[in-house]
Design brief:
alpha/beta, 15% strand, 16 helices, Rossmann fold, 2 domains, five-stranded parallel sheet
């Protein structure tokens, strides 16, 4: 009899989503495909399809009850409405649930919905992306089945640490393009470096990559038009383009204030590409960024923009410091590779 594993989550195949939730769900599927033993049948269900074809829940239930293991990657609504039913099915049909978190919202969510805690305590495993969430779940909610599973990436490409271009400092923003991710801060930094007398001394350029939020699309393009070639939108990178593209930059900038932010995949992508990061001191940043060793954590205070500007000017003026940060970033990427992730998840699946 085949051993069945179901990966249940928001793959975004129907609309070709490329946000963090869809990316991690697809990455987890790929991790299983590469590492599960021969004879394992890996099934999937993309919850996005229920938005337009709700009758497909019958197919979901059929795949679920035939599974030995369910790798579950829910968003908030799915956890609230569907998880209690999934848990009941797991008891009736005797399958294990491995809940892989996307983002860092679960502790805040459980404060509002404590009724889920009892059932979460009894599933096979809960896997947050960072140690802070793991500690919160264990200490505040008395969940003992919690194991940190850092966000991860697949890569075979080892970039060299080098300056992008002599006489230029290239910044990259790669995330969902929405105000909550800090694009207004990026534009304020650009205002400073766009001044002719400053740009001559510190020739900074900024490129944006990522899916654009419809609510902020007009604002983004209207503001972008002020800067000419200094700031450009370069579209959405395919997974196999990310490392090759990011390694041509000097640093990644991410002044996020996104409410459900966990460990942004863009930070890991930057490490793999061998570039340091400049990120806001927001929720879990300190779990993934060592300040002044791999990048910079910028306080969210009234001097935020000035602090970014200071570090940019400092790195441009001190090429060896930039090179040291690039080497450290590349070394850090080993924590977020396929082998590290599989070593944590493997005991629960085989």
């Amino acid at each position: 009899m085949a051993f069945n594993v179901l990966v249940l989550g928001y793959f975004g195949f129907t609309t070709d989503k490329k946000d963090g939730q869809a990316t991690k769900t697809r990455q987890c599927l790929e991790l299983l495909k590469r590492n599960m033993k021969a004879g394992t049948r890996i099934n999937t269900f993309d919850t996005e399809i229920l938005h337009t074809q709700p009758w497909r829940i019958v197919n979901l239930l059929w795949k679920t009850i035939r599974s030995n293991k369910v790798v579950y990657l829910p968003a908030q609504n799915n956890l609230y409405y569907f998880f209690p039913f999934l848990y009941t099915l797991s008891k009736i049909f005797r399958f294990d649930i491995m809940y892989l978190l996307i983002g860092g919202w679960l502790p805040f969510f459980l404060e509002k919905h404590p009724r889920l805690i009892k059932e979460l305590r009894k599933i096979k495993g809960i896997f947050p992306e960072n140690e802070t969430v793991t500690t919160l779940l264990k200490e505040k909610f008395k969940l003992r089945n919690v194991y940190t599973l850092p966000n991860f990436r697949f890569t075979k490409y080892t970039p060299k640490a080098f300056s992008s271009k002599p006489g230029e400092f290239r910044l990259v923003f790669m995330s969902r393009i929405v105000k909550e991710k800090g694009i207004e801060t990026v534009f304020q930094i650009a205002d400073y470096f766009a001044k002719p007398e400053i740009h001559e001394k510190f020739p900074v350029s900024i490129d944006f990559y990522g899916e654009i939020s419809p609510k902020d699309k007009d604002f983004f393009f209207r503001t972008l038009a002020r800067y000419g070639q200094m700031i450009q939108y370069k579209g959405i990178l395919a997974p196999n383009e990310i490392t090759h593209t990011l390694c041509t930059y000097d640093a990644l900038i991410l002044p996020t204030r996104y409410p459900t932010e966990g460990v942004p995949g863009a930070i890991i992508d930057a490490y793999i590409a061998g570039i340091p990061v400049m990120v806001s001191d927001w929720i879990y940043s300190r779990d993934v960024v060592e300040h002044e060793k791999i990048g910079y954590i910028i306080p969210l205070d009234r001097n935020e923009v000035e602090t970014y500007i200071h570090h940019i000017e400092d790195l441009y003026s001190h090429p060896q410091k930039l090179l040291d940060l690039k080497m450290a970033a590349r070394a850090q990427s080993a924590k977020y590779d396929e082998k590290a992730a599989w070593s944590i998840l493997k005991p629960f699946l085989v």
